[in-house]
Amino acid sequence: MTPATADRLKKPAHKAEPGEKAPPPDDSRLLYTGADWDYDTIKRCHDAIQDIALNELGLDVYPNQIEVITSEQMLDAYASIGMPLLYRHWSFGKHFARDEAMYRRGMRGLAYEIVINSSPCISYIMEENSITMQALVIAHAAFGHNHFFKNNYLFQQWTDAEGILGYLDFAKSYIARCEERYGQQLVERTLDAAHALMNQGIHRYPRRRLDLQSEARREQERHEMQRQLYNDLWRTVPAKKGQKAPSDEERRRALLDLPEENILYFLEKKAPRLANWQREVLRIVRHVAQYFSPQRQTKVMNEGCATYTHYRIMTRLHETGRISDGAYLEFLHSHTAVVFQPAFDDPRYSGINPYALGFAMMQDIERIATNPTEEDRAWFPGYAGSGDAMAALRDAWANYRDESFILQYLSPHLMRKMRLFHLHDDSDESVYRVNAIHDERGYRRVRQQLAAQYDFSSLDPDIQIADVDLAGDRRLILEHRVQNGVLLAEEDAKSVLQHVANLWGYDVMLVENDNDGKTLRKLTVPARTVLLAE
Amino acid sequence: MSMIIVDRRSNPKGKSLANRQRFIRRAKEQILRAVNGASSSRRIKDVESGADIAIPTGGIAEPTFRRSAQGGIRDHVVPGNKEFMEGDTIAKPPGGAGGGRGNEGSADGGGEDEFRFVLTREEFMDLFMEDLELPDLAKRKLKAADAVLWQRAGYSVSGSPTNLNLVRTMRNSLSRRIALKRPKSDEMLALEAEIAELEAHPGQDPDRLMALRGLLERQVLRAKRIPYIDPIDVRYNRFTAIPKPAAQAVMFCLMDVSGSMTEHMKDLAKRFFMLLYLFLTRRYKQVEVVFIRHTHEAEEVDEDTFFHSTETGGTMVSTALEEMKRIIKERYPVSDWNIYGAQASDGDNTTSDGGRTAALLQNDLLPACQYYAYVEVGSDPDAMPAGFATHARETDLWRTYKQVTGTETPFVMKKVRHRREIYPVFRELFARDGAKQTEEATP
Where do the record's region annotations for Disordered lie (chain B) (predicted)? Predict the structure, then answer.
């Protein structure tokens, strides 16, 4: 299962103090006083925030729908990967049980909000939060994320904000119907298999649309053409040297559209022994995976955009006297906890915090646009000193994903500020090597390496369907293109392969090749018939 | 742009219930094992609370294709450089792991060795009882929370149609009709008959006919205005829930703790005591538990000592019965307490002690007890090599107690070698209770 990809703004471990109780007497402009909220204050906050977001920052958003939920409902929502409407499956129950246990022990705070990339854009806010937190969440989710969802090219290309809620509704009832008709167990096994392949169920490049029917029709037309043009004389013409007729193998691969990196798609369309409803189940899982894939590729940008937006808006509200000093301090308390980045040797370090990196980069872009140094002008001639930070940011938010964004926008200034350095770890050596640091010689390499960490190839291993032994035992052959000599974790790989074999209906082999085509390891798994419906 | 606020707080709770049930079904085997572990480590009185359960991730793992944590070349960009220059080397920590990668625990918990979560009381009881193979009736009874009796409590002006009290309603209706002088139907009929009579002979008494017609018209109007049954007449039977008569009970747990009792036997005994405790808490508001252990002498101990320490010595069952008798006399007068005895032993007893034991039970304890159960625990038949398992010789204590059994005595004895054999000991107890309930249900 994909880790939860819906956005979560984490609550700091300790609860923020509620805002000041006693308002200064002269403030008639304040949107609210105290910590409690009601619908009117939320509406007032929303309108004030919207005014800043649309008119000052120039954001462009889907209509907003804000839903108030309880903490239990929040737990529930993010047990099912942030989608409250998702179909039923035991794994969501498992996540709920774990999250609930951790929440009860106080080991984990709850997310303040969950936002769904849909139109209208639905943001969930929790009832027990103070009004300042609700305002923060509205600025963060209902405007920051919302703008990003609507404008980023990946979301535009791969997700359908208008249709997603209806589709999830359909998926839920479809799977419930399947459970009734074919039994919970069989549906569960099918879903298990599909979930295991979720990360391999994503199209990465737009594809031409072809289905089996039109393929068959074209095949027939070709055949007809050949029949009409048939002339036995052609057989006697000697073939040109070096131009061989395509072999059977190549023809078969072309016919099956191989190699194919979307394993779920391949199985859905071409696994010979699946029932139609099982194909539909694979399709549903694949659609859900595809829907979430832009979020996985834009974690830093998405959070950076939302965090920058809420910071600008809350600060502006404070500047214009719409929120009190106490409320602003409460906001800053949460904000700093969210964008905190511990150093690598800090016990709290757990990788680069996407909120911290994203927010820092957005602020850096603002700085370069409005107040650049000589160095910035040399590195970013395109927009340095342009004076319009929001234009530069909106352009970045619309046209990049994490990898390209970092490659394009990470500045030497920020690398120095974060003191980024590149560590090289070769398992054959007894030491780590510092390959580049934040200095003149290292900027470009550090930036490249950091960008590479957010690339497709770092997110998921590159696994493709290479071939099918149609003439022999119908064995499906998968190829893992090994990067840097890192093989797959064997136990997990075997379990997933078992799922593939069950779906395919025949044996499956995974070959792990390095860049030179040398085979490093082979795993073979025989099919079991657990998925075959009577 | 308009914004919509939706309040979802009042949506039905427990939306994740279906997922949770699927999860528990999926992980049943592991959870069952964990529940068994938990129930052997918890106190008898805690058997009913929910449980913090940890199960191995094995059966509920969600595998994905992911890169191995070992081998190969990895590049990391990390923040917070303080001293390193390009080309520096850093010794790897022993053990191999390290770098930035190790911290990236997968979000689905794949990196954890154990999966921890909380079972509710209901779920725990379900699983706990499943292993004891209780019949459904008994399970239902044990799971039910405080039982209530519904008792008639006067009348109310609202209720469901099935509870409509016809007599009351009609009485109210009648008195209202009388008070408001609603014309009765036979009076109306008489009036109509008289009018018909007069009309049949026109010219006889036209004044009277006019008067009668006017009267009839007024009466019809009046009957319309004053309904036959008005909502204010309607009365329903009112019921009120009163808790079932609650009393107090004391449960004596007697166990032989001499060296011959193995851990398996003690576990069986514990489950036996737990089940009795559960049963008693259903019937009595307050249940006290007394633990008496014995070798050749008996003493009252706390639960920990009872289950977890072994003593050396001979075996004289009568000492324990003596102790029980003493405690009853001192602290639990028969008139105030329902007394239940539960004894577990491997059946050893000093031969000369037999007569005394039987006499104590027969003459002193059984008359005071509601119920006395004796289980003779044996080794696990599954763990025994074939051929040994069926070998069963009557033990000293068994022979002794056999003299006591009779149809009228509240005494049961049973040999138990596996958890699933425990329930039959209680069959009579549950059956009796069940019969009583069916009697109550059919007045």
Answer: 77-112
B148 φ/ψ angles, rounded to the nearest 5 degrees: -125, 155
ipTM above 0.85, yes or no: no
The verdict on a CB contact (< 8 Å) between A442 and B66 is: no
Q: Is residue B372 part of a domain?
A: yes
Residue B306 has pLDDT above 90, yes or no: no
Q: Which of A66, A192, A499 sits opposite B5 (nearest CB)?
A: A66
Domain hosting residue A367, numbered range:
354-457
Q: What is the pLDDT of residue A279?
A: 93
Domain boundary among B203, B218, B238: B238
Per CB-CB distance under 8 Å, the chain A contacts of B54 are none
Report which residue type is found at B431. A
**CB-based contact A101 B90, cutoff 8 Å:** no
The counts of H helices and E strands in chain B are 14, 13
Distance from CA of B51 to the nearest CA of A (A): 11
B65, part of any domain:
no
CA distance A138 to A161: 19
Does B256 share its domain with B230?
Answer: no
Chain A residues within an 8 Å CB radius of B109: 94-95, 98
Do B66 and A488 count as a contact with CB atoms less than 8 A apart? yes
Token reading at B73: 């070349």
Task: Tell me: pLDDT of B198 over 80.
Answer: yes
Q: Which residue is closest to A50 within chain B, CA to CA?
A: B1
Residues on chain A touching B117 (C-beta within 8 angstroms) = 94, 97-98, 100-101
* Dihedral pair phi/psi, residue B278, rounded to 5°: -60, -45
- Nearest-CA distance B336 → chain A (Å): 42
**Is B321 part of any domain?**
yes
* Structural domain contains residue A323: no
* CA-based nearest residue in chain A for residue B111: A492
CB contact under 8 A, A90 and B22: yes
Report how many Cβ contacts below 8 Å link chain A to chain B.
Answer: 285
The pLDDT tens digits of the residues spanning B383-422 come to 555 444 444 567 788 888 887 766 567 787 888 887 777 7
A313 Cβ contact list (under 8 Å, min separation 6): A49, A52, A53, A57, A139, A143
- In this structure, are residues A121 and A62 in contact, taking their beta carbons and an 8 Å threshold? yes
Same domain? B389 vs B360: yes
Residue of B nearest to A197 (CA): B64
Q: How many CA atoms lie within 13 A of B238 on its CB side?
A: 9
Instruction: Say if residue B255 is in the same domain as residue B225.
Output: no
Per the structure, the complete domain to which residue B27 belongs is given by 18-58+112-132
Kindly identify which residue of chain A lies nearest to residue B23, measuring between CA atoms.
A90
Residues B170 and B121 in one domain: no
CB of A11 closer than 8 Å to CB of A102:
no
B374: tokens are 């004796």
Asked whether residue B107 is domain-assigned, the answer is: no
Residues B279, B366 within the same domain = yes
Mutation pick from B1, B2, B3, B66 vs chain A, by most beta carbons of A within 10 Å, is B3
Q: What is the DSSP letter of A111?
A: B
**Parallel/antiparallel/unpaired status of strands B286-294 and B248-256:** parallel
A326 vs A232, which has greater pLDDT? A326
Same-domain pairing of B334 and B389: yes
Residues B225 and B311 in one domain: no
Distance CA(A118)–CA(A162), nearest Å, equals 6
Number of domains in chain A: 2
CB A503 within 8 A of CB A518: no
